[in-house]
Structure formats: structure tokens, C-alpha cells
Amino acid sequence: MYDDIAFDKQNPRPGVIINRPNGTDVYNGVPKDYTGEDGRTYMRAIANICNAGVTIEEMAAVSCLVLPC
């Protein structure tokens, strides 16, 4: 999970994610793969790899996580 909304400036309750009216916090206790600047760095890296035309095979050689562009 990448936490792009939990601490977004538009979230009225920073660190809390409610996904339906009268719902409970679905963010607390969930393992986060990428948080804060780490998440932004990861997403920028993936976008740059996709924009550079790197193949899935080349991407797999340097990462255990392969996402199709």
C-alpha cells in the first residue's frame, strides 16, 4: 500500500482514512509499503521507467516488484 491520501492536505482527518459514510478508520494497523517521501520517490521512479520505455524484463532485473506500464 502507498499512503497517498492519509496525510494529504485535503484529508480533514490526517492519518485517518474513512472509505464510506459512518465507516471506521481503514488506515490504522494496515502495513504500508511506501510512506511519505519514500512513496513519492517510488512513484516518480516508476513513472520515469515507464516513460523511458524500459521493458518489463529490464525492470524485473532490478526490482522484485513488476508493474506493467
Q: Would you give an account of this structure?
A:
- The structure is a single chain.
- It is elongated and about 45 Å long.
- It has 69 residues and is mainly α.
- The protein is 33% helix and 0% strand.
- The chain is built from two helices and no strands.
- It has a domain at 36-66.
- The two termini are 18 Å apart.
Structural class: mainly alpha
Shape from CA axes? elongated
The largest pleated sheet is described as: none
Secondary structure tally, helices: 2
| Uncertain runs | none
Query: What oligomeric state do these chains adopt?
Result: single chain
The tally of beta strands, per DSSP, is 0
Please give a handful of descriptors for the protein shown:
single chain; 69 residues; mainly alpha; elongated
Describe the secondary-structure layout:
Elements: H1 36-51, H2 56-62
Quick overview of this protein structure:
The chain is mainly α and 69 residues long. The chain has a domain at 36-66. It has helices at 36-51, 56-62.
